[in-house]
Amino acid sequence: MEPKYGDVIKITLQGDAWALYVDNGEIVHLVLIDESSGTNSASAKRKVMLKKDLLSEVAGNSKSNYHVENKYDGSLHIRETRAIQRSVDLLLKNQVIYEIEGIFEQYSQLIVEQLRYDNTDMECSGANPGDLIEMPSPGLLYSHWGVYVGNGYVVHLVKEDSMGSSGSSSSSSSGSSSVTGYVWKDRLTEYVPDKNYKVNNKYDKNYPPRDVRDIIKEANEQAWKKHEYDLLTMNCEHFATQLRYSTAVCGELLNVLIAVVSAVRRSSSSSSSR
Description:
By secondary structure, this protein is α+β, with helices and mostly antiparallel strands. 28% of the residues lie in helices and 30% in strands. It contains 7 helices and 16 strands. The protein has helices at 55-59, 81-93, 104-116, 188-191, 212-222, 236-245, 253-272, and strands at residues 8-11, 17-21, 26-35, 45-54, 66-68, 77-78, 97-101, 117-118, 132-135, 144-150, 153-158, 160-162, 165-166, 178-187, 198-199, 225-230. The strands form 4 sheets. A 6-stranded antiparallel sheet has the order 5-1-2-3-4-7. It has a 6-stranded antiparallel sheet with strand order 15-9-10-11-14-16. The protein has a two-stranded antiparallel ribbon with strand order 6-8. A hairpin with a 2-residue loop joins strand 10 and strand 11. The longest helix has 20 residues, at 253-272.
């Protein structure tokens, strides 16, 4: 069987190794970056990360050295290809490091299978479906916001329509702050790998939350689609609060405006001193 995107690959060239096929002859798999003892020791502590390689470089040129082993397809929910792709992109981009204790091959299999399948083990402690999730924005005065929809996932609006590329301006000639954004549905622990996020339903005293089922339904309907992004009227917090309360609220806007004004002043001061 020729592997397809998202297939679990068992490699038997030198012992058992596990990988996820990601097309064009490439796989992603865990590699050791640090260890205190041998890989087969149950007490070994190590650091590992996901790496992309050619399947032929890891398994050799003989197809007898590997095979597809999607053994949980009949019992676990298989994730959409775009969800698997997004997870792989985030883990590679963020260079997520796992600290493990135990047998490397077993952990490698677990991580690869978590990429292919959804399961209840991915739930985020302390978060309930429909909750607002506040996430840090490193180097900025404001936070990033999303809505937790269960099973480890957060739905959130970003200004980019794909990773690493800016959304195109919808009316740049008029100086509008509106651009094309995108609504992602990400595993929270992959989008914020250091787990530096918190539940913050801070507007519940002022606005009654919607029925959780309605929040989740609308959030999932919005996911994986382009969406207007406007710093002043539809930023990530507006989007998240709209889902929870049916009212777009943004308490972060003052911090954003302060940051913009400060930047303009610094720029003006720098220009005048030349």
